[in-house]
Specification:
CATH superfamily of the largest domain: ANL, N-terminal domain
Subunit structure: Monomer.
Number of strands: 20
Largest sheet: 9 strands, mixed
Keywords: Ligase, Nucleotide-binding, Phosphopantetheine, Phosphoprotein
GO molecular function: nucleotide binding; phenylacetate-CoA ligase activity
CATH class of the largest domain: Alpha Beta
Oligomer: single chain
Pathway: Aromatic compound metabolism
Strand content: 15-25%
Bound molecules: zinc ion
Number of helices: 12
Distance between the termini: 54 Å
Shape: globular
Strand order of the largest sheet: 4-3-5-6-7-8-9-14-13
Radius of gyration: 23 Å
Low-confidence stretches: none
Organism: Candidatus Methanofastidiosum methylothiophilum
Helix content: 25-40%
CATH architecture of the largest domain: 3-Layer(aba) Sandwich
Length: 429
């Protein structure tokens, strides 16, 4: 698929959108109801500008229609289910036809090819295979591209590293926080990444991570680390990926229409403005969605990328609107805290963010691990380091954070998505 200009992409999107609206208006009860409620007919949505006539679809819509209310094909055409963990309520279920899985595999193959992987490579998939979409998404994409799949799944850290060494694995995928834990275990096992391992590429996602964390992962493994993006409601991974420029993620705009909105008012924002990402997939049979609110915060880059891909890029994610903490009335993203921590070479990337309410005021405490040597060394150095980080955090967050330096190994390690934020205010009411 070759697109020569932005106009060609938009023309293609308009055509695909008309097909999707027509399809959903005939097959999806949920979409039929939406049109009725809005007094619209399928014909009223002719191009991407008309898309704004439609309301957003939210995670609550999926929950309210649990489990199969958004299904647009007979059950016999469904070949797969995935579901979100549902930590904050009923889980959300997504369904796929054979064609849906096929398209998803192609999108994931594109993701991996964009990072430079070829059929000469192998990929160790250190994601959980199950309701979570990460394991299967990478698995199918890698197979489609001809990459040799090593489906180790998550956990069993030392075994993962032995397999990397014995199989000569050239790439792997995991959460970024687990990659750091894995890298530290490589060091502990006295394995030389340059001599003993053949790794060259890592693809990470499923939680927000910044440039500091990228640098740390790249150093630990001597690889290029790329960010990718997707959410299960849209398919799973396979929506966007970084190219070799490592400056924003290309969105597959021939498969998704993207918008950025003000999360409070729902107003569509203009070029370069930061807000919540909203996607309309242009290919889904089992579960058509229109204007799905992701809660992920980013902005669209309009300028053309040096890599030559015709699709626009989004900024690396700042976190989810759900993750945003409001501390003494100030918006704080955990990713801002992480950036400050990882810029300081004294830290290895293990930290916890604790929010409490003492009396009328919110208190923010950041526990950060330091090496054993530093922890048991000169107290003056330790106090100096603490003061420095507190000062750096204050200048970025605009609220005071108390830093508590703890010995390495204190903060629990995660095998999947890291639980970095402990908000005790909710428990206290
Ligand atoms: Zn690019």
């Amino acid at each position: 698929m070759e697109f020569k200009s932005r106009e060609e992409i938009i023309e293609y999107q308009n055509k695909k959108l008309r097909c999707c609206v027509d399809y959903a208006s005939k097959n999806s009860r949920f979409f039929k109801d939406t049109l009725k409620k809005c007094n619209l007919k399928a014909d009223d949505i002719k191009n991407i500008d008309d898309l704004q006539k439609l309301p957003f679809t939210t995670k609550n819509d999926l929950r309210d229609n649990y489990p199969f209310g958004l299904m647009a094909v007979p059950m016999e055409d469904i070949v797969r289910f995935h579901a979100s963990s549902g930590t904050t309520g009923k889980s959300t279920v997504v369904y796929y036809t054979k064609n849906d899985l096929d398209t998803w595999s192609n999108l994931m193959a594109r993701v991996l090819a964009t990072t430079g992987l070829t059929k000469k490579d192998s990929m160790q998939i250190i994601y959980n295979y199950g309701f979570f979409t990460g394991g299967f998404g990478f698995h199918y994409g890698a197979e489609r591209l001809g990459v040799s799949v090593i489906p180790t799944g998550s956990g069993n850290t030392k075994k993962q590293i032995e397999i990397m060494r014995d199989f000569g694995t050239t790439s792997f995928t995991s959460t970024p926080s687990y990659a750091i834990y894995l890298g530290e275990t490589v060091e502990e096992m006295k394995i030389d990444t340059k001599k003993d391992l053949k790794l060259k590429i890592g693809v990470f996602g499923a939680e927000p991570w910044g440039e500091g964390m990228r640098q740390r992962i790249e150093e630990l493994f001597n690889i290029n680390a790329y960010d990718n993006y997707g959410i299960s409601e849209l398919c799973g991974p396979g929506v966007a990926v970084e190219c070799k420029e490592k400056d924003g993620l290309h969105v597959w705009e021939d498969h998704f229409i993207m918008e950025v909105i003000d999360p409070k008012t729902g107003e569509v924002l203009g070029e370069g403005e930061r807000g919540e990402l909203v996607f309309t997939p242009l290919w889904k049979e089992a579960m058509p969605l229109f204007r799905y609110r992701t809660k992920d915060i980013s902005t669209i880059y309009e300028e053309k990328c040096n890599c030559g891909l015709p699709f626009r890029k989004i900024e690396r994610l700042h976190g989810r609107s759900d993750d945003m903490l409001i501390i003494r009335g100030v918006n704080v993203f955990p990713s801002q805290i992480e950036e400050v921590i990882l810029k300081n070479s004294a830290f290895k990337g293990h930290y916890a963010i604790i929010v409490e309410r003492k009396g009328p005021l919110d208190h923010l405490t950041i526990e950060i691990e330091v090496t054993k040597d530093l922890f048991t060394g000169n107290l003056k150095d330790l106090i100096q380091l603490k003061d420095k980080v507190e000062e750096d955090l204050k200048s970025v967050l605009l609220v005071k954070a108390n830093v508590k330096l703890v010995e390495e190994g204190t903060i629990p390690r995660s095998q999947g998505k890291a639980q970095r934020v402990i908000d005790k205010r909710n428990l206290e009411g």
